[in-house]
Amino acid sequence: MPRITIGTTPIQLAWRNPKRKSWELEFIPASIISGNTGIVFVKRGSAPKADILSNTWDHTLSSGDQAGDNLDGAADKSPWEGDIWAVSDAAAQICTFRETNQDEG
To answer: Of 64, 59, 5, nearest to 29 (Cα)?
Structure first.
């Protein structure tokens, strides 16, 4: 999976995609990347705030955690088709992000 850097400015991980089958964001453990000690905030549809006390996020990730939709690939589950955003409370947190699409055909 491609690595991305998430810092203190919100970034858009994915744009609206009606053919999305699944998506996954994994925060690489600090045992692999020693600087990954912050918290990553993930939000569907708009940018979250990097504040654990706010209610502007859908997921919070600590080192080694993951978030996503339809990670088990079940055909009866519909993943979020809109924008996906992330921000961290610390600079330069390294994650991986993967998005898969439905087969066309």
So the answer is: 64
* DSSP three-state, residue 4: strand
Tens-of-pLDDT digits for all 105 residues of the chain? 789 999 999 999 999 999 998 999 999 999 999 999 999 999 999 999 999 999 899 999 999 999 998 877 666 667 889 999 999 999 999 999 999 988 743
Which tokens hold the place of 80? 């979020």
Distance CA 6, CA 13 (A): 10
- Rounded Cα distance, 66 and 16, in Å: 21
Q: Is the dihedral of CA 92, 95, 101, 103 positive or negative?
A: positive
DSSP track, 25-81: EEE--TTTSTT--S-EEEEESSPPPS-TTSS--SEEE-TT-EEEE-TT--TTPPPP-
Evaluate if pTM is beyond 0.85: yes
Please give the Cα distance from 28 to 95 (Å, whole number): 5
